Amino acid sequence: MRLIALIILVIPGIAATLGIKWMRDAFFGEYHPWFFHVVIQFAAGLIFFLAGIAFIGGFILFRDRKRNLTKGKFKNTK
């Protein structure tokens, strides 16, 4: 089970890293040929970065809720 959880966290981590790289390259004016413009590359990088970080954060929050490690601020109200 831990290996599966690690794989689930590594894939969004790689996506977030790729997003940071695309944003950095767009900032310094180096664009990849599959993007039409530097702004599109930066936007794609920002989307990848935010999606990867949000997935990892949600995964950790779900795990902490399941193990009852949150202080009450993030408890389910069902």
Biggest sheet architecture: none
Q: Can you tell me the residue ranges where pLDDT is under 50 for at least 5 consecutive residues?
A: none
How does the helix and strand content classify structurally?
mainly alpha
Termini separation comes to 27 Å
**Helical content class:** over 70%
Question: What general form does the structure show?
Answer: elongated
Helical stretch tally: 2
Radius of gyration, rounded?
17 Å
Topology order in helix (H) and strand (E) letters = HH
**Beta fraction of the residues?**
under 5%
The residue-averaged pLDDT reads 90
Count of extended strands: 0
Q: How do you describe this structure in short?
A:
With about 80 residues, the protein is mostly helical. The chain is built from two helices and no strands.
Describe it.
It is a single chain. By secondary structure, the chain is mainly alpha-helical. The protein contains two helices and no strands. The chain has helices at residues 2-27, 38-66. Helix 1 runs antiparallel to helix 2. The longest helix is centred in the middle third of the chain and has 29 residues, at 38-66. The protein starts with a helix and ends in a 12-residue tail after the last helix.
